[in-house]
Amino acid sequence: MNAPLDKNIEHSFQTAPHFPIYMDYSATTPIDPRVADKMIPYLREQFGNPASRSHAYGWSAEQAVEEARAQVAALVGADPREIIWTSGATESNNLAIKGAASFYKKQGNHIITVETEHKCVLDTCKRLQREGCEVTYLTPQKDGIVTPEMVVAAMTDKTILVSIMAANNEIGVVQDLKAICAAVKAKNPKVLFHTDAAQAAGKVPFDVEDLKVDLVSMSAHKIYGPKGVGALWVRRKPRVRIDPQIDGGGHERGMRSGTLAVPLIVGFGKAAELAKAEMADEAVRLEALRTRLLEGLQKRLPDTYVNGSMAHRLPGNLNISFSFVEGESLMMALKDIAVSSGSACTSASLEPSYVLRALGVGDELAHSSIRFGIGRFNTAEEIDYVIDTVVKAVDRLRSLSPLWEMHQDGIDINSIQWTPH
Amino acid sequence: MAYSEKVIEHYENPRNVGTFGKDEADDIGTGLVGAPACGDVMRLQIKVENGVIKDAKFKTFGCGSAIASSSLATEMIKGMTLDQAAEIKNTQIVEELNLPPVKIHCSVLAEDAIKAAIEDYKKRHA
C-alpha cells in the first residue's frame, strides 16, 4: 500500500501519443497532471471515509473533502457550506430540478427551460411533465441567445423554477444569466433560478452572488478534473430547499446520501483551484487558437458557417457547418483528429443535432456540422495540422458531392423536389 | 463506429466518381435519390448502348457507407443489361460491404438510385 509511486505515471500525459489530436474538450478533458498528483495519495494510503469520526483515517479524509469544498466554492464565489457533492452535472441537474419541483409543488408546477439545454435537463423536465408539471421550452434566437424578455413572457403564476444553462455544450454560447435572472426575480422573487454551469464554471467568470442565481450544477471532468464527480450549489441566504433524490445516511446535509468519493472530490477541488488561478490567461490563449482555426478554415474553404453567436461564446468552442459535406463522412476523413459532429449518423438516432435545429439551422447544414473543442493542451501546431486536414477532406468530399456540383452550377438545392426517406 | 475494411476502401478510393457531359445526354439515364435534410443524396448515372450499361458514374453526399454503397453500385452494374441491373437488391450491397443494421438505408438508397437511373433512361427512350 505504501510502495513508492511509479514516477512515470506523473509524466505519462506528456508522453502520450500525439495522434489522434484531441480537440473535443467540450465532451471531456484529460486530468491535469497536477490534479492527478493531488489525487494519488487518496487512491492509496489516505483511503479513509470522511464520515468516520472516530479515527485519523476519517479525519484526514474529511479534511481533504472540506479543502476541496472550499476550492470549488471559491471558483463560483460561494460559501463552502452551500456545495453538495454529486456524481456529476447530470445528477446535479436531476437533483436541482426534481428536488425543487418536489419541494415547491404547493407553490406551483410550472418550469421554464430552453430547447438547447443538455438532454439531462430536457429529459428530467419531460419526466416531470408525465408527473403533472407544466414545462415551457423556449426557442432561443438564431444565434443561440435567450433574452430576459422571452423568459419573463413565459412566466405564469404557477412558475416555480427557471432552468437555463450558462454555456451550451454544442455551440458554446454563453447566456447573460445576470440579466435574465434579474428580470425573472423582478417579476416574481419567489421563482427559483437554476443553471447548468457544467461548461461555464471554470472557463468563464462565474459568480453566484453577482448573478443572483439559486442553484448551480457543476462538473469536474470538463475542467481537467476526474470523471464521476460534480457538485450542486444550493443557496443558503435566502435558503433554497430541495427534496433529496437519493436517500440513505444523510450525507451532504441530507441532500445527497452516499459515501463521498474522496479521491474524485480532491481532484475536483484541485481542478477548480487551477481553473480559478489560470482562467483569465487560458481564455486569452484559447481564443487566439480558435481565431487561428476559424480564420484558417474560412480563408481556404468557401460556404462554411459558424453556428451560434461568436460574440457570446466559450473561448475554446467552434461549431462550424461545411455546406454540401455530410458530417460523418467528414469525421471519417478526420481520423487523426478527435472531434464531434452534429450529424445524425454519429448518434444512434437519425435526427441531426437538436441544438442546431432549435437555432433554425437547416437540416442539411446541421448534418454538415463539426464541433471543435480547443483546450488546455492544444498547440498552435496542432491547430495548423487540423486546418490542413479539414481543408483537404472538405475539398475531396465536395468533389464527390452532387449538391456541391449543383451549387457550383448555380442550382438552388431548395428548388429541387427531394424524396425524404 | 467501426467501418468494415471494404467500406473504408471504397470511401478512400471511390470508383467511377463524376458526371457525364451534357453532349452525351442521349445515352444517359440519371437517378437522383435521397434528400439533403436526411443527410443522404445520391446521383447515379448510366450510359447505355444497345440495352447494356457501358459506363456508370456517381456523386454522393452522405456518410462513408453511403459513398461506399454508391461506388460499389456503379461497379456492379457496369456491363449488365438494364433488366439485370434492375434486379440488383440492396442485400447484395449489404453483404458485400458488411454494412451494420444502422447503415442498411444506405444500401436501399443505392438500389433506388440504380432503379431511378434506369427509369429515367427508359422514360426518355420510350
Summarize the structure in words.
The complex is a heterodimer of chains A (421) and B (126). Chain A has 421 residues and is of the alpha/beta class. Chain A has 14 helices and 13 strands. In chain A, the strands form three sheets. In chain A, strands 2-8-7-6-5-3-4 form a seven-stranded mixed sheet, sandwiched between helices. Chain A has a four-stranded antiparallel sheet with strand order 9-10-13-12. Chain A has a two-stranded parallel sheet with strand order 1-11. In chain A, helix 9 (262-300) crosses helix 13. The longest helix of chain A has 39 residues, at 262-300. The model of chain A has no long low-confidence stretch (mean pLDDT 93). In chain B, strands 1-2-3 form a three-stranded antiparallel sheet. The radius of gyration of chain B is 14 Å and the shape is globular. Chain B contains five helices and three strands. Chain B is of the alpha+beta class and 126 residues long. Chain B starts with a helix and ends with a helix.
Give the structural class of chain B.
alpha+beta
**Shape designation of chain A:** globular
Largest sheet of chain A: 7 strands, mixed
Largest interface: A-B, 31 and 32 residues
How much helicity do the residues of chain A have? 40-55%
Low-confidence stretches of chain B: none
Strand order of the largest sheet of chain A: 2-8-7-6-5-3-4
Radius of gyration of chain B, CA atoms, in whole angstroms = 14 Å
Total strands of chain B: the figure is: 3
Short description:
The complex is a heterodimer of chains A (421) and B (126). With 421 residues, chain A is α/β, with parallel strands linked by helices. Chain A is 40% helix and 13% strand.
